[in-house]
Write a structure and sequence with these properties.
Elements (H helix, E strand, L loop, with lengths): L1 E6 L14 E8 L2 E9 L19 E2 L30 E4 L4 H9 L3 E4 L5 H9 L12
Parallel strand pairs: 1-5, 5-6
Antiparallel strand pairs: 1-2, 2-3, 3-4
Length: about 140
Amino acid sequence: MKVAAVSNNGTSISAHFGKARYFVVLTIEAGKIANREVIDREAVVETPIQSGTNGRALNVINQHSHEHEHDSKNHTGNGKHHNIEPIAGCEAVLSRGMGMGMLQRLEQANIRAILTDVMSIDEAVEAYLGGKLANHPDLVH
């Protein structure tokens, strides 16, 4: 099973899905995190390739850690931050807030959006796996 989170630093959950720099995709095996991929959402390019990712190539980076926030000036308006293809196949995605449009896109893609008040990705995933992570629909904006 795979669970994703949106993040600006690879370790904490972003307060806004659309402004997050990274997807953190966690592979869960035997109830524990077995693998962690940090995908730079700005590096997801629409490059035709021969197989595997529906015509897109993904730039995947390892445990990247730098701390900074992104605001609207960092977004090019070309839809890169609305691309959910890198998390296709994930059971759920964790965020501390998102817009209604993104919530609907995730639902259409059969990805459960969990809006949480937990900051730490690892703590949130542990709570999710234990069935104890509260979903806060009031965090839709």
